[in-house]
Fold this protein.
Amino acid sequence: MQRVGSPGSRLLSEEQFSCSICLEVFVEPVSTPCGHSFCKACLQGYWEHSKKFVCPMCKKTYPKKPEMSVNRVLAEISSQFQGLVMADGAGPSSRGSTLNLSTESGHGGSPGRNTGTFAQAGEVPCDACIGRKLKAHKSCVNCPGSFCETHLRHHKKVKSMTSHRLIEPTFNLEDKICKKHERLLDVYCRTDHVCVCSACAESAHKSHDIVSTDHEWKKKMTNLGKKRSELKHLIKERAKKLDEIKQSIKVIKSSAQKELEDSWHVYAELQRLVEQSQAELVEAIATKHREAERHAQELARGLENELSLLRRRSSELEAHAQTQDKIVFLQNVSTLAAPPEPSDWSTVSINTDLYLGSIRASVSNLVDKFQEELKKIYGKELRKVQNYSSEVILDPATAQRNLAVSDDGRQVRYEERKSSQSEGPKRFHPALFVLGREGLGSGRHYWEVDTGRKTAWTLGLCSGSARRKGEIKLSPESGFWCLWLKGNEVKALDTTRLPLTLPSQPSKVGIFLDYEAGQICFYDVKARQQLYTFTNTFKENLFPIFSPCLNQEGKNSAPLVITPVKHT
């Protein structure tokens, strides 16, 4: 009922702000296209129950769910009216309560909102509040939403207690309500890995493994905590490895620059040697040319003098031969001087091929100088690979029974008497070999073996699957990359056996493996010289291999010794 007061105000009753479904003051009122207003939750519940989109007032039917927009003016007035009622101590269902809407009142907000605290970050807000929302006091399962104390009035009615279930404030409540039974999803089906309500648990999931959501949550959170810890550990490891890689990039850049600078120095020195050798060759040719020319000129001058004398003598004789007076001729002939003794010029010759072997000798001398430079480069390379020194220990379980391995696993020698150890699949037989204990499947590794004055030995690497019984062919095709010394000659056992030209036999051999690069390099440590390099693609673990060979009547009885690496 509407009552008119003073000219500047109008008195409105509570009935004009009540939802025709719940008969309470509007909470989040929405209007249908036909112009009637209802609480949003009430209208949604009505449509879900009736399964049709019908206006509860005029019964107008809509083919599809109409667009529902909140009537903000009505919502503001309802909220203000509700607040005044609460402030005056009127019961939530008091009829005849009035609201004074005065143009002079100055109320632009909702007085009722001061009955609670505003929702802060992380707190569930009231879904019915307009503008700044109050903190929700409860959430309603039947009208999925969260409400403050003021907007819970019609949810707390005695007549509604059978259909309205209130729980603690919950975010996204609609996603936590069973669509079929309109109950809270409070149990978890481990069989189907889904949250269900208690009614679903007793029907569709009756024979399944069912636990409370709290229990499953605690279990899942515990597992999640473990995974988080593992993930943090992995992140920490990856971050550390990333720092190492970034540092490696800096080192690579610095190393590349240093390598370039070293190459400039090396090639500048080689160029200097070439220019010096060429200059020396030019000077030598010029010197030979000057000496040969001087000698030839001396011979020519001597021959010219003798030729001049002979010509004068010939002229004198020619003049006497023209004398017809016999007396004068005889008198003059006796006064002729004796002819000079002629020189023997038959053996005199000039060698015009003065420069035979000059270029060869010059280039040979240049090669010797290049070899000295190469020796320096090998020395630097050897110092670098020695930085990758790895501990190699012999594995007695792989040693042929005539081979005796020292207790520290660093020496092996041949003995005539076989050990009493049984033949196992890992042991070589009858080949005189023993392997290192650890297989090498990545990275760079270097070790040194003292061969002393031994007259025979075999060193290198072999693949883990290489043959160990019966006759063995030492070649890369068979999984062996080795050098051997036999008959005072060192050979590389590649596809063919390649004799190595060496100034002397190595007394200490360095072996370097770059697994990823596919290289196995051998060095004469004391001579600082590279002996040979195998190139291949490795697909399995490689093991260091050693053979001290037979004693050869005591001439080869010394052991092979794996020695600590000392930078040369």
User: Anything to note?
Assistant: Residues 1-10, 89-114, 158-162 have pLDDT under 50 and may be disordered. The two ends are 111 Å apart (CA to CA). The CA atoms of residues 155 and 164 lie 6 Å apart. The chain has three domains: 3-176, 215-335, 386-563.
